[in-house]
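User: Before I run my own analysis I want an independent prediction to cross-check against. Here's the chain; please return only the structure tokens and, at the end, one sentence I can use as a sanity check.
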Amino acid sequence: MKVVFFGTQPYDRETFDRLAPEYGIEIVYHRSDLDACNAVLAQGADAVCLFVNDRADAPAIARLREAGVRLIALRCAGFNNVDLEAAARCGLPVVRVPAYSPHAVAEHAVALMLALNRKIHRAYWRTRDGNFSLHGLMGFDMYGKTAGIVGTGKIARELIRILLGFGMEVVAYDPFPDADYAAQSGIGYLPLEELYARSDVISLHCPLTDRTRRMIDARAIAMMKPGVMLINTGRGMLIRTEDLIEGLKSGRVGAAGLDVYEEEAGYFYEDTSDRVMDDDMLARLLSFRNVIVTSHQAFFTREAVDNIARTTMENLAAFDRRGELRNEVVRDPLSGSRAQRAAEPDRTDDVTVCL
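Assistant: Structure tokens:
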């Protein structure tokens, strides 16, 4: 089986090259992200393997089909960059990696919370310059504060476990509340508006759908407790960036930790330090002292990367050897949102790369 990888990084080659002989898969790597213009690079391949910045829109998918591609394999959990309807029309099934390490993403979310709260990033740069003043570095005890978690899939549940260990009160919103889980963990499900109003820290762990797109906007921010901390390790388009900036300017949002950004393609996973940043909103975000932006790296642990590679190769091999669509992504005809049947318990957990 021949597979063309788009949007590859050195760590992709290292990990997948180690596994390829075991699965009998020939891999061709391309550094560029997939789009309609370069889809021809997949000519003669049985499958393509995509990541979060690849754009598998209708024109790109049509060209992949013309090139002879029979399968789209995502080496991530999120699939909002794939036009599923176009893929279905072209007869191209889509598979993904529904889970790889909930610990990785949950721990990164906590790292953002702690760094923002205790001003670790600011203290680091100060002390390097010999400035040991504490002015402006005061934080708050996490103990006794309220954390609002939007979505309660695997990653969110791992985060909740950690935050409960801090002695925080945890409230959650999920369109499919799990009463048994709430009783066992000691959390409470609330309507979204009430969660906004009560939470000192809000962390997003939901998929990007028509219902959740830019759910954090000016209206939502106005409902939040003044000085709220916002954490997003899910999808950049969950937040309307211009409204977040206004919330930061007014002080309504006290801090923001963002591992994702709605217009991250072209910046994230690239070294752009030698050119002028032409994204005004991203530049504005980076100018705030109470904002930390990381480069969609919440998933990036040794264990998670190994799990992603292994699951991807198993998905490819199952299709090649038995015509089996393992971890297939399908469109939910009832809700109109995208869902994945085989991973229904994870339906509200969509993280960075990855879920």
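Sanity check: The domain at 102-293 is CATH 3.40.50.720 (Rossmann fold).
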